[in-house]
Design brief:
By secondary structure, the chain is α/β, with parallel strands linked by helices. The chain has helices spanning 40-56, 71-81, 85-90, 111-127, 147-160, 179-187, 208-226, 233-242, 261-267, 271-274, 288-296, 347-405, 413-440, 453-467, 487-504, 561-572, and strands at residues 16-21, 24-28, 31-37, 60-65, 94-98, 133-138, 166-173, 191-196, 199-204, 247-250, 256-259, 307-312, 318-329, 336-345, 449-452, 474-477, 482-485, 512-518, 525-530, 550-551, 557-558, 576-581, 587-592. The chain has a seven-stranded mixed β-sheet, sandwiched between helices. Helix 6 runs antiparallel to helix 12.
Amino acid sequence: MIRLHNSLLFKENMEARRTGIDIIKEIPWGTHFCQLYNTKDDLIEILVPYFKAGLESNEYCIWVTSESLPETKAMHALAGSMPDLDGYLKKKQLEIFNYSELYTKGGSFKAGRVLDFWIRKLDKALENGFEGIRVTGDTIWLQKNGWKDFTDYEEEINKIISNYKMIVACTYFLGRYGADEIIDIIKNHEFALIKRENKWMAIENSAQSKLKQELINERNKVLDVLNSNRQTTDYLEKLFNYANAPIIVWDPSFKITRFNHAFEHLTGYNVNEVIDRELDVLFPESGREESLNKIRRTLEGEHWDSVEIPIMCKNGNIKVVLWNSANIYGEDEKTIVATIAQGQDITERRDAELELKALNENLKNHSRQLETANKDLEAFSYSLSHDVRKYIRTIDGYSSIIAEEFPEIKNSKNGEYIEKIKGAVKSISKLIDSMLGLYRISNLKHNYEEVNLSDVINEIIDKKDEEYKEYRINYKVESNMLLYSNSEFLKILFENLIDNSCKSLKDNINAKLEIGKISSDNSPTYFVSDNGTGIDSIYHEKIFQPFVSYNTGKGYNSTGIGLAIVKKIVNILNGNIWLESELGKGSTFFIRF
């Protein structure tokens, strides 16, 4: 697992705060990081301990949720980890609300309004005696046409957050973004949390200029102390030896004269093993001459702001180290008496960059493969819509001509064959329509809004009632069922469920179809229930698979395409669907988003 060095995250004069996240123990105020997730469980694994630590540290916490993890589920998950949550709620220390109340309030995203909101919340939190604020906001609502505005907003957060007692964690659903967007995301955050092989890792991707400035600042601090009054000698010794960064000093003949404890930890050498030895003992043979050439240039007055030089450890391992250096001059201020260099081990960061690069390449390859597959699917769809339909119409047409030209065969065996041919043509046409419907779902836009599901269902029933009017179905629809979702997806989903139920009600003299919802603490469960023929339990596990047909026992056969469409839409909407049914006793489909 790749881990971040906590020392890389500390800002000057900033208090460290506990994160609650195992791989990132502490971070300072002013930290802006992100989490890349696949499931709501990923969000719970990171955000629940993140907010638990914030509440316990007397921080004001704000959780901006989305459909990936709605408000009620977020609160339920947090309560499961914090039995004493009610106490913090009474203190009004936690606020959870939907993204539409902040990011898209008024119908559009405005960066200035959101930034002002965070500052006002911070001022209020400090007035009420809290240490600062801890924030997270999910971005699954973000559309492609708003990507530029939002990344500009993220960059603006980076500019101002370091001046405030704020910690901000942004969450991004991996399924929504390509390689280019992921690079933008990581670029705009100090580090990113991502799960690989069921383990979380933290990838630091700070800009090179930021790391360079940190190294320069550290170098200047050391130089200022080294050139200060000789009465601070004891202080200097402790600073040198116990500094977190590896520090080494060599003389003009390139012999090592000083070597601190952090350098011992980096290389595995004891200080007594390297003092007075040639500097090249620390360099791998393959790049030794190149490294020495860089060092020779320091005698010509060159100093390093950020130069990579690999170091060979005592055990033979090689680490990539980023160095800055400065020359120390004698009393004449011209003669170089020593060179001091401070390093930062970036081996893990470099490995992470390589792994991220490989991940991006895999994403690009996957995108290309997906594009090819979509083109193939589009060609297949075109063939179904045009070529196959043409042949079906030909078969149907010639069958009709034969029946008209030879009326005497109508009541013969050959007449039965003609009717079977025309019935098969009709079934194939319906199957093609269903297959095309399954394909077109992938091309629908993922626009979300408040939907009155009752109105959507009543509109469907008006159409189906005409189609199945001879069944005399008694419909019952619960009124005013409101939810935040995609109206197009919901229309297709319930149209297929209602169609499935209507077909099962043939020959039922007391046909009933009911649609409603069951309220619960977590989220409502919607249902479509009929008293039709029912479905044998042997099909319950397979019923949502495409092309899996089932028999009700009363002459009604299904291809399974309609229910496959239902299952696909439920998955897109991050929901669950299940069936309760028995032959002769009707069926009930349950859906929870």
